[in-house]
Amino acid sequence: MGLSTLLFFVITLLLGGAVGYGLFYVANRKNAQLGQSTQSSTILLERIEKVFKVVMAEGYFTEIFDYKDDKKFLYLFKNSKKALVIAKAKVLVGFDFAKMRFRLDETTNQMVIEYFPEPEVLSIDTDYKFYDIENGIWNRFSHEDYTNLLVDAKQAMNEKALEGDLPRIANNQIQFMMYQLAASMNWKINMQLPEANQKRLEEFSNYDEVNAEPKLLPKDED
């Protein structure tokens, strides 16, 4: 075998190895990229329900929750964990008309309402941010603690919305809309509600707008 033939054989072997390694590297890189970008998800539809809910008032709330939990170790050493939670929420208040009971009297063109639902919170869209989280040495925040904090904050938002003016605004809005709609169709609404239901709706009807009138300043005496 001559020298030129040997060199040709060695160069061919090196080139073949280099090409083979390059093809192997490219194939593995593509497989790796495909493996990284592959995702799978499963969406399960549990149930579909027909609802007749009408939103009549919308409110925006911001609440600050100062959470602190103290625990004692061996009844001697106190250890605390703290957190500041700022919660923002959009609250929708309205009525679930599936709860209303009524009958139509076509001879007198009347809608006789025998039960009218109270305004309720239909939806709360919340956003939470945690600040100044301080963990104790042996008293630390867990995932369950964070979940409970969010549940408490949402419950507080729900109570605050029902205690405010949103239910009264929603009740006045729905009453006005119903009577106007009935009058436009030459119908009348006849409320024949149970006493407790009537009294409760009257409480929601008592809505007084805030009147901000400037007070006159006393005149300066000469």
UniProtKB/TrEMBL annotation:
In which organism is this protein found? Answer: Runella defluvii
Q: Which InterPro entries match?
A: DUF4230
Q: Which Pfam families match?
A: DUF4230
Which protein are we looking at? DUF4230 domain-containing protein
Recorded superkingdom:
Bacteria
